[in-house]
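stuck on this chain:
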Amino acid sequence: MIGIVIYLFLFLAGLFTLVVSLLSGQFPEWTTSFQLPIACGLAGGFGGVLYCLRGLYLNYSVKKQWSSEWYPWYIIRPFVSVLTGGVSFLFLKAGLLVLEAQKEASSSNFGFFALAFIAGLNVDKFISKIEDLAQATWGIEKSRASKDSK
């Protein structure tokens, strides 16, 4: 269990380092046009690590049901959260998800970051909503994993 805690805090430190590097312009020149999607991925990562830390606390301290069978989940979940944070950017940018009715000249990217954080925090619900959208828009059936979870 201690190894998972250390891993999660190292992942969190890595996210902070990447955010500082991104904000200070230390990313390579070719990434300039990708800063917003990268930042969304990082925001999703923060949400995922928060979710893992909360799950660790609840399962170890509150419910007293800690199991090493969940180790892969704690290791993989932050990476999946980074990916869903980045994917949330794609859906917003494509106009498939809408945050506000009108785009104002003074609007910021906080909506992108908020949705990316939520996507990373709750990967399962985000994927389920994306599958709902795909089914309604293009008639694509939900995955077996989504059907089995109901």
